[in-house]
Specification:
Its EC number is 1.11.1.5. By secondary structure, the chain is an all-alpha fold. 48% of the residues lie in helices and 2% in strands. It contains 22 helices and 4 strands. The protein is globular and about 75 Å long. It starts with a helix and ends in an 8-residue tail after the last helix.
Length: 592
């Protein structure tokens, strides 16, 4: 009996030690396992290309490889964004304008262009070379993941951002521009959400609810796989927004702190469409420039003050009329001497949610933008030093300065810039019919407008440049960089000649930047015409027609560096009409 008791004890200890020897699963381990699977898929991809398999086999392996990438994308984009750009970024040169140089693109989107819609054996070496680079980047990511600590707060923040990425870049076709495999890829990315939270707390009640919503979202993707007919309005409101809210609820339930960051999108945003989701201080230069109501009051007075101009006859509001959503309604602005300027006056609404000002993006912030205009001899021809002297002598202004900058003994010139910029930062309402619909008021958009939203985010690919929900070129989900595009804008609506305005090229002599202009916001677009940097088009219908044809190239103009896809969109008359109807839902309440 003693022998059997001793044997039982030994077996019990052995079993116990075996259990202890098997490490409990954690997020980092699972991430590294998925990364190894990705490397294996890339190696298999190389073998298939090397043995000259059929295009069908090559495309299928490409899809498998990128689906595997989607399992780690949440972490790659969050922890190593510089490498992510060269794993699944746009197939466009990456600009380093400070150093006046560029880097050629690499990654899945480059490979996608090499294998589809037709694959030529002549591309074999190039595809294998791109796969070598992709594999090298995967190994670099692996080394990073092995070295870093991945805490729960970063996991939840990264997962929430990835849901926003699915909404803004995934289902819009941004990262699958040719194959249009966005819907199955969105399903793959969403599958990771409950899997990751399960490793944080498998007993969470919120997690159970989240699992149910994700399961329904995946089923929806399976039932609606076609890119052009996929109902994004329904998918966002019924699945993506609820998933985002459950993620926030899980974070609060588990008492996981929010990650502090200085970005336009607040870490506390439960969805991208919350009324206060965005922080106007996301692009301020330093803490002393931060927004306050007192600064806005001072800035508003300065904005409407004509003494800011040399001849005391023009204020900021002269060209940025509040009744026209802070535009002037002209094709191009008029100089102080009465001549037509080259550029159209852009809206100031939502201008704070981009890190580049002016059509040519020559200034990074609103502070520099205001003084640029004030001192421009064609616009206001004023002097910041003279303005400072004037306001310093005015009792009413000094009271406002004291309230706005209580720590300053006297007003300073930079405060004039900051106050005007603060007023511009106050012009973001987020109360359009579109906003209210996305927050649950389904009566705010009709069937045609919803069709237009689905065309905008789908077949027409508008949302791959005018990113939801800001509808400008500030790239989600980080919203840290504002993009430009070369679309081949003509001189006028006849479309016979290309505009001779070189845009960004004027300040950065890179051939890719000839004719490059900032992607403006489409919020309030129904009341901010004429359109384009030169006011070439008067109506939204003309704009839709221009894009439907394939931009400048589609008009028959020579635009060698056009970044806008040159293929025709082949929109139907009903789709074009719906697209215009949708854009009109982006008008803030005060301008309706």
């Amino acid at each position: 009996m003693k022998y059997f008791a001793l044997l039982s004890l030994v077996l019990s200890l052995l079993l116990s030690s075996c259990k202890e020897a098997v490490p409990e699963k954690n997020i980092k381990q699972e991430l590294l396992v998925d990364l190894t699977k990705l490397k294996n898929e890339i190696i298999l991809f190389q073998e298939i290309v090397f043995k000259e398999a059929s295009q069908k086999e090559i495309v299928e392996q490409f899809k498998k490889s990128r689906l595997q990438y989607k399992r780690i994308e949440w972490a790659v984009e969050y922890f190593v964004p510089e490498t992510a750009r060269f794993m699944n970024g746009p197939a466009l040169d990456e600009m380093e304008l400070e150093e006046n140089k560029f880097f050629v693109p690499n990654g899945f989107q480059v490979i996608e262009e090499l294998i589809y819609p037709e694959y030529s054996p002549e591309n074999k070496k190039e595809v294998i070379r791109e796969l070598d680079i992709l594999l090298s980047n995967a190994k670099q990511v692996e080394a990073t993941f092995e070295a870093i600590t991945i805490s729960d707060d970063y996991v939840v923040d990264a997962v929430q951002q990835n849901v926003f990425r699915i909404l803004t870049l995934g289902i819009t076709g941004f990262d699958s521009p040719i194959l249009n495999s966005s819907i199955p890829e969105a399903k793959q990315s969403l599958a990771l959400v409950p899997e990751l939270l399960l490793l944080i707390n498998p007993k969470s009640k919120t997690l159970t609810e989240l699992q149910q919503i994700v399961a329904k979202a995946k089923a929806y993707c399976d039932s609606n796989p076609d890119f052009n007919t996929f109902n994004r309005a329904d998918f966002i409101t019924q699945y993506l927004n609820p998933i985002s809210r459950k993620l926030s609820a899980f974070q609060k339930e588990e008492k996981i702190p929010f990650v502090e960051r200085n970005r336009p999108l607040k870490a506390t945003a439960t969805t991208l469409f919350d009324e206060n989701a965005f922080d106007v201080d996301g692009f301020v230069a330093s803490n002393e420039y931060k927004y306050s109501k007192e600064k806005v009051a001072l800035g508003e007075k300065l904005f409407y003050d004509k003494t800011l101009s040399k001849n005391n006859d023009r204020s900021c509001a002269t060209c940025h009329n509040p009744e026209k959503a802070f535009t002037d309604g002209l094709k191009t602005n008029i100089s102080l001497k009465g001549k037509n300027l080259n550029r159209n006056t852009p809206t100031l609404t939502y201008a704070s949610l981009q890190n580049a000002q002016f059509w040519d993006m020559r200034q990074l912030d609103l502070e520099k933008q205001s003084v640029d205009v004030i001192e421009n001899e064609d616009e206001m021809h004023g002097s910041l030093a003279d303005i400072h002297s004037k306001v310093s002598a005015a009792t009413e202004y000094q009271k406002l300065f004291k309230k706005a900058y209580p720590k300053s003994e006297k007003s300073e010139a930079w405060q004039i810039q900051n106050a005007i910029a603060s007023y511009v930062r106050s012009l973001n309402s987020f109360d359009s019919r579109f906003d209210l619909y996305m927050r649950g008021d389904t009566a705010k958009m009709n069937t045609e407008e919803l069709q237009g939203m689905n065309v905008f985010m789908g077949k027409a690919k508008c949302a791959t440049c005018h990113f939801t929900p800001l509808f400008n070129g500030t790239v989600p989900p980080n919203f840290a960089k504002t993009e430009h595009e070369v679309i081949g804008t003509p001189e006028d609506a006849s479309g016979k000649h290309l505009s001779d305005d070189t845009g960004r090229y004027l300040f950065n002599q890179l051939p890719q930047l000839k004719g490059a202009f900032k992607t403006p916001t489409l919020r309030n677009v129904a009341v901010t015409g004429p359109y384009m940097h030169n006011g070439a088009y008067k109506t939204l219908e003309e704009i839709v027609e221009f894009y439907d044809l394939g931009g400048g190239t589609g008009l028959g103009l020579s635009v060698e560096n056009q970044t806008l896809p040159t293929d025709k969109l082949n929109l139907t008359a009903a789709e074009k009409k719906a697209l215009v109807a949708f854009m009109k839902t982006l008008t803030d309440k005060r301008y309706e």
